[in-house]
Every structure is written in C-alpha cells, then in structure tokens.
Amino acid sequence: MFRPENPPETLATAARAAEAAGVDELWLWEDCFFHGGLSAAAIALATSTTLVVGVGVLPVPLRNVALLAMEIAMLERTFPGRLRVGVGHGVQDWMAQVGERVGSPLTLLREYTTALTALLNGETVDAAGRYVTLSDVRLDWPPSTPVEVLLAATGPKTLALSGELAAGTVLTSGTSPDAVREAVSIIRAAAEQPRPHHVVAYVSCGLDDDHADAEVCGSAEQVAHGARQWIDAGVDTIVLQPRVGEDAEEFIRAIGTRVAPLLRG
After folding, report:
1. Which of 44, 64, 89, 191 lies at 20 to 30 Å from 57 by C-alpha?
2. Do residues 112 and 132 lie in contact, with contact meaning Cβ atoms separated by under 8 Å?
3. For the Luciferase-like domain, which residue ranges apply (predicted)?
4. Dist CA 227 CA 177 (whole Å)
5. What three-state secondary structure class fits 6?
6. pLDDT single digits (tens) 68-115
C-alpha cells in the first residue's frame, strides 16, 4: 500500500521500488483531499513495466460514470492486465463537503456499477435511473482486455450488492478474519449463480516493532503467519498497509523481499 498521506512526488520512486522488490501488486486509495486515484495509478503504471496497480477505491459520487469508464479504458488499453479498480460510496461527510452527497448511496452504487460494467464490456448503454442517466452511450475505445469492477463494502446490504453485481469486493483495514468469513458468506449468498469473486482486504502492518494498533506485526515470519489468517478466511489479495508516516520505499522493499517469499512458500 502506498498511502495517500505520502507526498505525490514520491509515488514514482515507490512504484519502481515495488517492482524491484517483487511485490505482486501496489495498491492506492483515494481519500479527500489527497491524491487523485486515477492519476496516481497512471503514474505508478507508467513508471513500472510489470507491476499491477490497484485503486481501492474511487468514490462514485465524484465522477460521472461515462467519464470513469473512459479513464479506466484508457489506462487498461495502455497497460493491459495491470490495472485493478474498485469503487464505493465514499465517506459521506466528505461527499457532503463537496456537494455530492446523495439520498441513497446504495441506489447510486447499484446504478453506477451496472452502467460501468456494461460500458467497460463495450456495450451501448441506456440508463434512466434515480442518479445515473445515459442515452446511447458506448466507448469508442473500450478496454482491450477484461476489467474487473470491484466494490468497497462493509455493511450487509453493500456486501450483498457486491456479490450480486461485482467481480470482487474490497474490505477495509480493521476487518477481522471472522468478519471476512461473514462477508464472504453474504457475498456468496447474494450471487445468482456460483462465479469467481475476488476478495481484497487491507491489513494494517507493523514490521519489526510491536505496533499495538497493527493487525499483523513483528518479524517477517510473524507478519506472514498473521497474514495467513486472512488468506485462510477467504481473502484472495491481502494488501499490507503501513502506518502513517512510515517510509514508503523501505516498507515496500521489506514486504517484497522478506514477507512475500514466505507467503508464496
């Protein structure tokens, strides 16, 4: 994880460090009012060659769905197979702060996810929803490879929506292994038919020191052992999240060179 509290100008170096260290994926997130998530993803992709970059997540009230589809398609065609994108409600206080809070975030997310998925699949979309309105919209340059739409979810209604519509779910830091099992159960129950559904979870991590506020901490061996609890609970992608103020490059190198080999083994 490259935290949004890090200066934007340090992202390119961090992305190169992640690729050199051999991490599978580098994840970003978009909080108000730090980095723009898509521009950050573009920087990380452009300054690496094989690194997969995840954005978890983009708040849907801030972007017209057609514009987001255009941006994702542009990045995916340029860096095929290297972009993962999640969307979510957004923090409601922040959405109110910028004048974009809606009466029913769940309705917006349903309409938005449906339209976004169809647009990224190259379909012509007409929509006349409560929040999403499209008339004969089709991307001229749709993604050249499939793009998974992930949803950020915590509560049971949004988890069920993710199971119904999305290709995967992003779970926030603080979601315990037991809570992951419960979430996976809700997601699977909501799917109309069995299909792949990828679960991404952020897990706060403290390396070498005993951080009382970290979900996994200690030596590389202790961190790997702790991380397996989330993997065993049903997480497909575990995103280790450093504390605020920690040196991003140092943390990334340690995860790539010391922790990741233990997890792969």
Report:
1. 191
2. yes
3. 7-215
4. 10
5. coil
6. 999 999 999 999 999 999 999 999 999 999 999 999 999 999 999 999
Main-chain dihedrals φ then ψ at residue 33, nearest 5 degrees: -125, 65
CA dist 111 and 245 (Å) reads 37
The domain 8-264 having CATH identifier 3.20.20.30: the answer here is: yes
Q: How confident is the model at residue 212 (pLDDT cuts 50, 70, 90)?
A: low
What pLDDT shows up at residue 201?
98
* Cα distances (angstroms) measured from residue 95 to each of 38, 90, 173, 233: 18, 7, 21, 32
- Domain spans in the chain, listed from the N-terminal domain onward: 8-264
In the predicted model, what is the mean pLDDT of the chain?
A: 96
